[in-house]
Amino acid sequence: MTTSSDHRTPSNPRPSGEHWYELTATLSPESKEEFGNWLRSQLECLEYELDSFVTQNSLRKSLRR
User: Among residues 23, 24, 20, which one has the least CA distance to residue 33?
Assistant: First the structure.
């Protein structure tokens, strides 16, 4: 009799740095630049949103470290 442990599904593949380099090698410089600009704007928005959580007290504690 078979059990569920006999029918294990393989784990999801995890990308390595090699895959990333293969992908980026196929992109045009314009595409890379466009993605970089998009990512930069997303990070700026995130920083702006997170800025509301910074207080003078937390900033002083952070600077002391």
Answer: 24
Residue 7 corresponds to which tokens in the numbers above?
A: 């029918």
Separation between Cα atoms, residue 15 and residue 17, nearest integer Å: 7
* pTM for the full predicted model: 0.52
Taking the C-alpha atoms of residue 49 and residue 27, their distance in angstroms, rounded to an integer, is 31
Give the separation between CA 2 and CA 18, rounded to whole angstroms.
Answer: 38
pLDDT tens column, 6-53: 677 777 766 677 777 888 889 999 999 999 999 999 999 999 999 888
Nearest to residue 24, comparing CAs of 13, 38, 36?
36
Instruction: Check if the beta carbon of residue 14 is closer than 8 Å to that of residue 22.
Output: no
